[in-house]
């Protein structure tokens, strides 16, 4: 681990204070047991060291080293996409919800490494988010989507260049097709009733026929791609959450905002007893998201009502895309909950 970091300093891949290029560093590392993104990554914390530039300088800093030990000769597309995001997109985002990336390079014959600013006093929750936590997630998610929508309309060349550079987008569409077909096959095993079953199948077929357009229509933007609670770090004040940091950008892609919205909502549903209660909860969260979106980007060239309808129309798509993650996060009877969610989609008009 240390020899990889020393190479990064030696080859001037690391940017220090005031953007000075640092040649060499001696430092201490602490293994960080917390791994919010992927079990295939190891996280270390740089706690102190000495920088050698023009003269030795002692420092006591807080940086997180994310390293992929299993990929020495093969760099996964997830690392490449996360690196691209930090390199091209973060300058156009609010630092309040992102961590700073100091290194996003890979040296020959070494595993991929990202060095990120340490997230001080932020914690990750393993339990279902309550309404206060979920609203904060919706607020920051709306800010991020609004920032990306503004980038799309004000600097489309950069937006398009980033999207074209993303690795694995065609593979992602193939995986989505497989997920939709598998979902349709499993529908027959559930007692949904003929009417609801036919509506869901008809909507799935429509997704299959128009998959590329669903991912790249006028409402599409840069999305996180897997926005669940394990990717969110909370900061508290007076025992209440007041800010979050979003991590795990290896799943970043171009797609509909409903992907991220549906992911965080459907993995943190309240313990309700019927579809009508779910619909009320959903509409409240959607209006809260849209309020913050329009506050952030008041000159949006797309009507708010149209954006709302687009999110509703693609909710089933988001549900299918994150089906296994949603199943994993549900703590009560899965069959009844899935049926209730599909009934809620029908009430909202998502299946029309």
UniProtKB/TrEMBL annotation:
<feature type="domain" description="CHK kinase-like">
    <location>
        <begin position="114"/>
        <end position="299"/>
    </location>
</feature>
<dbReference type="InterPro" id="IPR004119">
    <property type="entry name" value="EcKL"/>
</dbReference>
<dbReference type="InterPro" id="IPR015897">
    <property type="entry name" value="CHK_kinase-like"/>
</dbReference>
<dbReference type="Pfam" id="PF02958">
    <property type="entry name" value="EcKL"/>
</dbReference>
<protein>
    <recommendedName>
        <fullName>CHK kinase-like domain-containing protein</fullName>
    </recommendedName>
</protein>
<dbReference type="InterPro" id="IPR011009">
    <property type="entry name" value="Kinase-like_dom_sf"/>
</dbReference>
